[in-house]
What does this fold into?
Amino acid sequence: MMSTADDLRRKYFKDEDHPYNIYEKLINSALKPDWVLLDAGCGREAPVLRKYTGKVGKLIGIDCEEFASPIPGIELVRGDIGNMDSIDSNSIDMVISRAVLEHIQNPELVLKEINRVLKLNGNFVFLVPNLYDYSSIISLLVPNKYHPQIVSKVEGRKVDDVFPTYYKINTKKSVYDIAKLSGFKIDKFEYVGQYPHNLMFNKYLFLVGTCYEKLLERFEFLSFLRGWILVHMIKQNDNT
It folds into this structure.
């Protein structure tokens, strides 16, 4: 009897290799205990920031959605990450953002605002889907109005947690171009693979997706097709 998709996931993919875990590992490697950490687009329940409660000087989460409830140890700000007027210039040591910037229509504006709130030589770490991943290509071709229903059925995500996608900073060229315009230097740029999470609904499709992911993992020259882009930028110039 053939294994289920979840059995195949556990067999062929390690939890520590998940993009979210690699993202957090990069944050942890740079983060210092006395720093102010801001999560741009932290989500209703700020799942990443919760992991740093009591471990850094100050935690701030900002999101355009209404928060589920107050979170002890985290300052929650409801607002636009392209206009963080409640946050002082040059006051943040590190900004992080996970799976958010693909939903932004003007990422240059957002990066300039992140540059404003960061201290000189401050850190910006973000993880975004790679435009050249097959999931992103399909997402780009399908009108945004259909995304909630499709993602809800395929991934089991709540309709309210599915947002329009624009993919304006989801290639190597766009990342470098926008970083330069926004006063940042790229310290790290990496393509990161993942198990075919959007094919979990069918074990046969999941097996095909697994073969594809393993091919990308084996050959470095195909890395530009991996599912995610992980970036670490450092503020070099003041755009205020």
